[in-house]
Amino acid sequence: MKDTRIVFMGTSDFAKEILNNLLVNNFNVVLVVSQPDSIVGRKKILTPSPVKTFALNNNLEVFTPDNIKKDMDAIKKSKPDIIITCAYGQIIPKELLDLPSLGCINVHASLLPKLRGGAPIHRAIMEGHKKTGITIMYMDEHMDTGDIIEKSEVEISLDDDLESLSKKLVLSANNLLLDILPKIISGSSSRTKQNDNDATYAKIITKDDEFIDFNRTSQEIYNQIRALNPNPGAYFLLNKEVVKVYRSSIGNKKSTPGMISATYKDGIGIGTSDGEIIIKTIKLSGKNKVEVKDYLNGVKKEKLIGVMCNEK
Domain coordinates of the chain in residue numbers? Predict the structure, then answer.
């Protein structure tokens, strides 16, 4: 397996962990392909992807094409036996899919055909799924539609957020990939066609997905908050200011949706369509993340009661 030439294509922190696992287990990664550097944060700093940063720190050759369909010569010159992709961010053209003798495989963080697309971990939590998993598949020209090699299931607990579930899925993905690669290299791997009739889609998270609508149920809002923690964070407006929310719980009070109904030792209760959501960790614009119990030490609690959130 050390002689098998691997091109790895990925961008996210999740993909970085898959690449690290390949290196730890002495696989021969001859080229890393990632998305171009992007503008990040309020200071608009040009920032490399987590995969690119990790690859450079480990003395790997890195290629970051703007458009993989128009610029693939570096991949061809690397003469890969197999291409492994994970959360790369561009559709791989047929010319590349046909290039390696062992094919192109993708590590996808859902139980395909469920949650095809770019945000499967976020959407699994946001939609209240009780389980998700990892699918490793042979790639075709479309998004997450290729033949399945193997899957592994991962339970989603009620207190999992994006960070904790991602860690579970990384562990599952690394174990599954290490099991599958020898089979692919030896030609003994299986492949099963996906049933397109069972397909669902995990669209990329937008700003609209981050906004908390208190006319939804407490459970829906709770799922939204944990699905977006730690990044990008859900938010609402308080006195016309953006308040990011990272941790919450479901309360027992019943009040007007969007109205601050109570303050507690460790949170602020806000009415929902069927009850109350208690926000516990927040970040105000231009300030650091803080526990609500600490935030309440610096405000007049009685002035919060009855305030309507999201009023512009």
Answer: 5-198, 207-304
Task: Name the CA dihedral angle for 53, 177, 120, 285, rounded to a multiple of 10 degrees.
Answer: -30
CATH number of 5-198: 3.40.50.170
Q: Which of 98, 89, 47, 49 is nearest to 68 (CA)?
A: 89
> What's the pLDDT tens digit per position in 7-39?
999 999 999 999 999 999 999 999 999 999 988
What CA–CA distances, in Å, run from 28 to 4, 34, 104?
Answer: 6, 17, 16
Close Cβ partners of 127 (under 8 Å, ≥ 6 residues apart): 223
Tokens in use for 63?
Answer: 């290629």
Q: Is 135 helix (H, G, I), strand (E, B) or coil?
A: strand
Q: What's the predicted TM-score (pTM) here?
A: 0.95
Measured distance CA(82)–CA(100) in Å, rounded = 5
Helices 13-24 and 162-186, packing angle to 10 deg: 40
| Tens-digit pLDDT profile for residues 45-68 | 899 999 999 999 999 999 999 999
Question: What class is the 207-304 domain?
Answer: alpha beta
Return the biggest CA–CA distance within the chain. 69
